[in-house]
Design brief:
The chain has 192 residues and is of the alpha/beta class. The protein has six helices and seven strands, in the order E-H-E-E-E-E-H-E-H-H-H-H-E. The chain has a single domain, classed as Pyruvate-ferredoxin oxidoreductase, PFOR, domain III (Pyruvate-ferredoxin Oxidoreductase, domain 3). Helix content is 38%, strand content 21%. The longest helix is centred in the last third of the chain and has 17 residues, at 172-188.
Length: 192
């Protein structure tokens, strides 16, 4: 892993970009990593574009600013790509992970993306099947771990389960559905 690994999440208000960044941050923290996980606040409302960020390192992190050159960009809603340059600041060897039913090759061609690694995962379909709602954040956690191997999958899953049990106390079906969505996305993500 490079000295500081940075992730930028793009989504819409209500899709869980902030929650996904925080869950990833908690899982990384439990492995002994130094972590920052934070949203970018503005005049957000349900459906409006939002961003969240993760910064992870083996050493203390002394910078405190937004992430402009992420190692990976995660897009929770592919319609954002029509109005926002989600690849802004992403280096040529960076990773673009998109919630879509399309293949990485189709995305590359449609948006004329050059020099980036692309992965796709149909997180809407997965979340509908496992959670019963179109909430792409937890499936995209599974896809993130698969394409980067940045954390141990089973350890991340265990930590996420503990966090979800606290958040959804007395609602084990929600915890189970979210864990299933993470596992399914981990298995089904397509990489180029």
């Amino acid at each position: 892993m490079k000295e500081i690994f940075e992730i930028r999440w793009h989504g819409r208000g209500g899709q869980g970009a902030k929650t996904a960044a925080l869950l990833f941050g908690d899982a990384a923290l439990s492995t002994g990593k130094y972590i920052q996980a934070f949203p970018e606040y503005g005049p957000e409302r349900m459906g409006a574009p939002v961003q969240s960020f993760d910064r992870m390192s083996d050493k203390p992190i002394t910078i405190h600013c937004g992430i402009t050159n992420p190692d990976i960009v995660i897009v929770l809603d592919s319609t954002l790509m029509k109005t926002i340059d989600v690849t802004d600041g992403l280096p040529d060897d960076g990773y673009l992970l998109i919630n879509t039913h399309k293949s990485p090759a189709e995305i590359r061609k449609e948006f004329n993306i050059k020099g980036k690694k692309i992965a796709t995962c149909d997180a809407y379909k997965i979340s509908e099947e496992t959670i019963g709602k179109r909430i792409p954040n937890t499936p995209m956690l599974g896809a993130l771990i698969k394409v980067t191997s940045i954390l141990d999958f089973n350890q991340m899953l265990k930590d996420t389960e503990e966090k979800l049990k606290k958040k959804f106390l007395g609602r084990p079906e929600i915890v189970k559905g979210n864990l299933e969505s993470i596992k399914k996305a981990y298995e089904e993500v397509k990489q180029e």
